[in-house]
Amino acid sequence: MTSPILATEGLTVRFGGHVAVDAVSCAFQTGELTAIVGPNGAGKTTYFNLISGQIPASAGRVLLRGRDLSGQSVSQRTRAGIGRAFQLTNLFPNLSVLENVRLVVQSNAGQGMNLWSMASRHAELTEAAEAILTRVRLIGNRDQTVSELSHGNQRKLEVALLIALDPAVYMFDEPTAGMSVDEAPVVLDLIAELKEQRDRTILLVEHKMDVIRTLADRIIVLHNGALAADGDPATVMASDVVQEAYMGRELEDV
Amino acid sequence: MIKAVLSGDMPRSVVLASILGLILFCLALAPFLFPGVRTVDTAARICVFVVLVASYDLLLGYGGIVSFAHTMFFGIGAYGVALASTHLGRGFDALAGGALAGAGVAAALAFVIGLFSLRVRAIFFAMITLAVASAVAVLVSQLSGLTGGEDGLTFQTPRELGPAFKFGDELFGVKLNGKLLSYYLVFTGSLILFLLMLRVVNSPFGRVLQAIRENDFRAEAIGYRVVRYRVAATCLSAAVAALAGSLYAIWLRYVGPDTTLSMEIMIDILLMVVIGGMGTMYGAVIGATVLVLAQNYLQNLMGAAGSAIEGLPVLPQLLDADRWLLWLGVLFILSVYFFPTGIVGRLRRS
Ligand SMILES: Nc1ncnc2c1ncn2[C@@H]1O[C@H](COP(=O)(O)OP(=O)(O)O)[C@@H](O)[C@H]1O
Ligand SMILES: [Mg+2]
């Protein structure tokens, strides 16, 4: 196997006495889509928070292309190639839909410290942002203020910001949660497209088993913060630990 | 053309555009339209406060950063010019040197304060600025050997900016003297500084500031180093405030704690930015104009109204000229209540 793009080694965080993520060691290969599953409170979001740097680890480390990211800020990790879409929508509420995406494109273009030129004159940034909006089917809402968007469209925009960032490592945290049945496929198709590119690494927290079955190359299971199972989808889904722990329920739903 | 000068940030309201046009017209021709020492003085004060308030809006309205040290930076610029003119002699080189040094010191101080406090939390910054501003105010009054203490410093500006300098006879009944030149120095300087700030808030950098104000957590997560942007905005805002202070000192040929450093001016700035409309830049123009005019003329107006209704119960006392601050307070509460987005926000909505 080639060396992993992203790895966590004994990654742990404690909140008071509660161990939310418990010594998780895991490596991710470029081009691989890994589904992360586990019941609510298992530590999936917290695991993401540790990788993207929103909270510091109590122990263990995160390696990107073999380089230790300890002590690096969120923005440094973002620029190094770790991108994140949030479980709880986290946008710029009083700016337009276009401006939200444009800000991400502008960040990638390294134009943030440009004090002189007029932002509205950077047609290339606006066009790139519009192209993203077309892909997520939000182009019709281009000039709407984000706080006026429906919940489903806000979730789409959440995903759009990550797609605009286009990092080496994509982390999606329940991207379709709260979306209607006709909105979710747009997002899932985008994730499938990214996977087809085969040059991006995708971590996907998702509860719907049918989605996981079609998209995932691999499943890891978190349980009480610890890594409970790790392997190809068929094996993991069939394993006792998963069947017993909680998945039986979910599988019956499908 | 106009679009480029305004950096693409159009007033977006006919009424607003008309009001701004009227203010610009009146300020540009103030010495001719309203000849008189007091009125021209009011016009110069409006020019300076537009810049001062706009630089505060850059910080508060765009960056979402609350600072109580804005008058300190204003004062640094004013004292810079005063000290340079006192020690280097009256000359344009002293004015320019003092203004640039003031802006440099203000930016450096803002950098240090920002680096220490903005890393922690934006609210911490507000507290630190309050502490530093109070300390500097005390320091200025204590170091009377250098700063003139509470009395301040009276100094001489170049002869060309004084009333004794005549460069012609009269134009439309207005004496062509150095005081006129001095006014146009203040007016032009203020206009340029305002347009520069309008440029900055509409630049990619300005957009990042807005993003940080909206959601600093996400701004960081899309790759912007939030602290860096906040510190940069603080430095820029401090430097511009200092330049406004320099212009004010050149106009008054005097600096003192009351004219530049006092907490009252800090409160005025806050009122102006809120009444005008935060995060709009044009709000600074309207807020500063309305408030400076109110401060200068409300007292007279109330005095006149008070004597007009003499004999009636209670009312004359309420309208007594000494109560003008009370009425200003009422005006403020009403405007915040009815125009939460300021005058500019209101005009743009209708
Ligand atoms: N900042 C925090 N402080 C204290 N406890 C936290 C914090 N973040 C998460 N937790 C706890 O860690 C556990 C894991 O939460 P989370 O990662 O959100 O779970 P999941 O995303 O798998 O549903 C939960 O018990 C949660 O209450
Ligand atoms: Mg979660």
Automatic annotation (TrEMBL), chain A:
<dbReference type="GO" id="GO:0016887">
    <property type="term" value="F:ATP hydrolysis activity"/>
</dbReference>
<dbReference type="GO" id="GO:0005886">
    <property type="term" value="C:plasma membrane"/>
</dbReference>
<keyword id="KW-0813">Transport</keyword>
<dbReference type="Pfam" id="PF00005">
    <property type="entry name" value="ABC_tran"/>
</dbReference>
<keyword id="KW-0547">Nucleotide-binding</keyword>
<dbReference type="GO" id="GO:0005524">
    <property type="term" value="F:ATP binding"/>
</dbReference>
<protein>
    <submittedName>
        <fullName>Amino acid/amide ABC transporter ATP-binding protein 1, HAAT family</fullName>
    </submittedName>
</protein>
<dbReference type="InterPro" id="IPR027417">
    <property type="entry name" value="P-loop_NTPase"/>
</dbReference>
<dbReference type="InterPro" id="IPR003439">
    <property type="entry name" value="ABC_transporter-like_ATP-bd"/>
</dbReference>
<dbReference type="InterPro" id="IPR017871">
    <property type="entry name" value="ABC_transporter-like_CS"/>
</dbReference>
<dbReference type="InterPro" id="IPR003593">
    <property type="entry name" value="AAA+_ATPase"/>
</dbReference>
<dbReference type="InterPro" id="IPR051120">
    <property type="entry name" value="ABC_AA/LPS_Transport"/>
</dbReference>
<keyword id="KW-0067">ATP-binding</keyword>
<feature type="domain" description="ABC transporter">
    <location>
        <begin position="6"/>
        <end position="249"/>
    </location>
</feature>
Automatic annotation (TrEMBL), chain B:
<feature type="transmembrane region" description="Helical">
    <location>
        <begin position="46"/>
        <end position="74"/>
    </location>
</feature>
<feature type="transmembrane region" description="Helical">
    <location>
        <begin position="14"/>
        <end position="34"/>
    </location>
</feature>
<protein>
    <submittedName>
        <fullName>Amino acid/amide ABC transporter membrane protein 2, HAAT family</fullName>
    </submittedName>
</protein>
<keyword id="KW-0812">Transmembrane</keyword>
<feature type="transmembrane region" description="Helical">
    <location>
        <begin position="301"/>
        <end position="319"/>
    </location>
</feature>
<dbReference type="InterPro" id="IPR043428">
    <property type="entry name" value="LivM-like"/>
</dbReference>
<dbReference type="Pfam" id="PF02653">
    <property type="entry name" value="BPD_transp_2"/>
</dbReference>
<feature type="transmembrane region" description="Helical">
    <location>
        <begin position="325"/>
        <end position="345"/>
    </location>
</feature>
<keyword id="KW-1003">Cell membrane</keyword>
<keyword id="KW-0472">Membrane</keyword>
<feature type="transmembrane region" description="Helical">
    <location>
        <begin position="123"/>
        <end position="143"/>
    </location>
</feature>
<keyword id="KW-1133">Transmembrane helix</keyword>
<dbReference type="GO" id="GO:0005886">
    <property type="term" value="C:plasma membrane"/>
</dbReference>
<dbReference type="InterPro" id="IPR001851">
    <property type="entry name" value="ABC_transp_permease"/>
</dbReference>
<feature type="transmembrane region" description="Helical">
    <location>
        <begin position="271"/>
        <end position="294"/>
    </location>
</feature>
<feature type="transmembrane region" description="Helical">
    <location>
        <begin position="94"/>
        <end position="116"/>
    </location>
</feature>
<feature type="transmembrane region" description="Helical">
    <location>
        <begin position="181"/>
        <end position="201"/>
    </location>
</feature>
<dbReference type="GO" id="GO:0015658">
    <property type="term" value="F:branched-chain amino acid transmembrane transporter activity"/>
</dbReference>
<feature type="transmembrane region" description="Helical">
    <location>
        <begin position="231"/>
        <end position="251"/>
    </location>
</feature>
